[in-house]
Amino acid sequence: MLDFVRLEADLDEEERLIRDTAREFVDDRVRPDAGDNFEAGTFPTELVSEMGELGFYAPNLEGYGSPNVSETAYGLLMQELEAGDSGVRSMASVQGALVMYPIHAYGSERQKSEWLPTLGSGEAVGCFGLTEPEHGSNPAGMETSARRDGDEYLLNGSKTWITNAPIADLAVVWARDRSSEGDPIRGFLVETDRDGVTTNEITGKLSLRASSTGEIGLNDVAVPAESVLPDVSGMKGPLSCLTQARYGIAWGAVGAARDCFEQARSYALDRDQFGGPIAQFQLQQEKLAEMATQITLGQLLAYRLAELKERGELRPQHVSMAKRNNVRTARETSRVAREILGGNGITTDHSPMRHMANMETVYTYEGTHDIHTLILGEELTGIQAFR
Ligand code: TGC
Ligand code: FAD
């Protein structure tokens, strides 16, 4: 497995164990059906509880059943899952970074004890509703509203492109609190079986096919006042969750890129043309050398992010650089790997074209490549260029 500058030599025992457990899970439970699930457009729901049993949901959190593993261990987990398929990593990272994290960081004691253990075990599935039909890159423009009505809030609005929504028991819904001064954005824990909630599946996706994606409709949905996350208000609530998830994506994308590289290297060594393996031709070697170099740079960035996160020095801009760079690397690597596989590369028998299709989503969600460019641009110049 590509680890050119021996980063894995420094892993501790727990990190190795988590990496190996996730790698074995992907080999046994994800890879064999990944092509079929992609073709059928189905998320393998049987993996939800299996991943829970293996402790794959937010193991970097502390308490309520989470073991507080290192940020490197968490990153390696995301890397191995995405080497299998981005849909599986997406399920785990939404559950952990976008649902368990906000409850852990901003929830009441009661919300934490009610939801964290069941989400952690995979008994309950969560989703994160931020994007709306008219507000994608600029979620601060959201229209979904919450109005206080006695001991309850009434929620109205719609969210779209929501990973896990059709299979979720709980939605973290971000809405404008119209009953408070300044209409601040607040997070609400909404059970999906409440009256007025709909979670329709989005069909026809050509990317991230092995993932369940849906819309959330909220039509006069009454939730108790204690469903609001009490400890956060404003855009930093959802944006801080995105920082956690983007961190996982920066690692995950390296896994997808590595899987493409390994497939291409092995194919190039096996495939004979003009009397020998195609790996003997300089053109193919250049492609492998470039892929290996870019993947190694992505790994270095991911490992450095883990160190900064452990020290409490990780800034959202660091994560933007890594998400932006590593997803671009995976997108490019998957295309070149497919090239090396020739005609055989366009089928689901091999992973690169599936990863290539998945990367179109990963390049777009959690802040598009352009948005991360602008976040970095602002950091480097002090000039905001979004508006
Ligand atoms: P802005 O005025 O810049 O900031 C508002 C407040 O938030 C703070 N902040 C952050 N905090 C933590 N992490 C971050 N990444 C943060 N970015 C900003 C900021 O310090 C400020 O705090 P305070 O205390 O001063 O109030 O906010 P803005 O509304 O202008 O936003 C700027 C922008 C464009 C960067 C932001 O809207 C953005 O990132 N847009 C991209 C939207 C996006 O990423 N959507 C993702 C939806 S979820 C998803 O895609 C899940 S896919 C999951 C899967 O399947 O894996
Ligand atoms: P838009 O914001 O309309 O952008 C369209 C294009 O314009 C992009 O190329 C963008 O980069 C560019 N653009 C936008 N603004 C600017 C600017 N200021 N300067 C330059 N260029 C700009 N969301 C959730 O809340 N929860 C989820 O679980 C979730 N899961 C998803 C799963 C999938 C499969 C997909 C595809 C999306 C998911 N999303 C989710 C939504 C995702 O976060 C959004 O698609 C993303 O933020 C971009 O928003 P948009 O699609 O509306 O594109």
From TrEMBL:
Boundaries of every Acyl-CoA dehydrogenase/oxidase C-terminal domain copy: 234-380
Record EC number: 1.3.8.6
Start and end residues of each Acyl-CoA oxidase/dehydrogenase middle domain: 127-221
KW Disulfide bond (keyword) present: no
Enzyme class: oxidoreductase
A molecular function GO annotation: fatty-acyl-CoA binding
PROSITE patterns: ACYL_COA_DH_2 (PS00073)
Annotated ranges, domain Acyl-CoA dehydrogenase/oxidase N-terminal: 13-123
Reaction equations catalysed: glutaryl-CoA + oxidized [electron-transfer flavoprotein] + 2 H(+) = (2E)-butenoyl-CoA + reduced [electron-transfer flavoprotein] + CO2
Swiss-Prot/TrEMBL cofactor(s): FAD
Biological process per Gene Ontology, one example term: fatty acid beta-oxidation using acyl-CoA dehydrogenase
Keyword entries, A-Z: FAD, Flavoprotein, Oxidoreductase, Transit peptide
Pathway note: Amino-acid metabolism; lysine degradation; Amino-acid metabolism; tryptophan metabolism
PANTHER family associated with the record: GLUTARYL-COA DEHYDROGENASE, MITOCHONDRIAL (PTHR42807)
Family per similarity comment: Belongs to the acyl-CoA dehydrogenase family.
Descriptive protein name: glutaryl-CoA dehydrogenase (ETF)
Taxonomic lineage from the root: Archaea, Methanobacteriati, Methanobacteriota, Stenosarchaea group, Halobacteria
